[in-house]
């Protein structure tokens, strides 16, 4: 849009300035009303407002303003506006990088502590009375087992629902496997009775 206005209305500078400024105001209103950006919306709005201020200062640098001294001061103020906007954007980017690094370090720390808890739980001996008799036959030496935690998912409502559904599926599969094992054991017992 901006290029079209600049090219098509190059002979009508006043109309160009009005259309460009009106378009910029419409962009700012649309950003606030429709909210197309979820993260960093404040920064996007800040940038659009600074572009509007930049355009208003840019108007005064044209031949509309005949005083050279005033144009020089307005040029310095434009440099300040550009520098200020750049500093705000760079500091926001650095802040986001620091937040991401903190989150990754926190997740690694949680994974390490969880891995240690799993290791301690697996290392503990379970009394023989609590063990399943079928597992006692196949059980070998209790080795130290590390279970890697690949990803820790945030505790959101969707995650809880998904894990509950997955948990129900796992329980159903475990029940089916247990029933299958019980049937096999029953068949083996029947076969042994038949041999006697």
From TrEMBL:
Task: Please give the name of this protein.
Answer: TRP C-terminal domain-containing protein
Query: Where does the record place the region Disordered?
Result: 121-140, 158-196
- What is the top-level taxon of the source organism? Eukaryota
Alphabetic keyword roster: Membrane, Transmembrane, Transmembrane helix
Give the species. Answer: Halteria grandinella
Q: What transmembrane ranges does the database entry give?
A: 12-31, 43-62, 74-99
């Amino acid at each position: 849009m901006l290029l079209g206005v600049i090219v098509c209305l190059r002979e009508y500078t006043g109309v160009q300035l009005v259309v460009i400024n009106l378009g910029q105001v419409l962009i700012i209103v649309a950003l606030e009303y429709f909210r197309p950006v979820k993260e960093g919306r404040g920064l996007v709005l800040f940038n659009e407002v600074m572009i509007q201020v930049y355009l208003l200062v840019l108007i005064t640098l044209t031949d509309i303003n005949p005083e050279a001294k005033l144009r020089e001061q307005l040029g310095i103020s434009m440099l300040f506006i550009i520098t200020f906007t750049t500093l705000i954007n760079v500091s926001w980017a650095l802040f986001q990088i620091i937040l991401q690094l903190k989150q990754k370090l926190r997740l690694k720390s949680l994974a390490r502590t969880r891995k240690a808890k799993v290791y301690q739980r697996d290392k503990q001996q379970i009394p023989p009375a609590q063990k399943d008799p079928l597992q006692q036959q196949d059980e070998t030496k209790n080795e130290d087992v590390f279970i890697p935690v690949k990803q820790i998912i945030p505790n959101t409502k969707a995650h809880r629902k998904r894990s509950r559904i997955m948990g129900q599926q796992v329980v159903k599969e475990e029940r089916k496997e247990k029933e299958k094992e019980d049937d096999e054991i029953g068949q083996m017992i029947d076969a042994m009775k038949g041999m006697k």
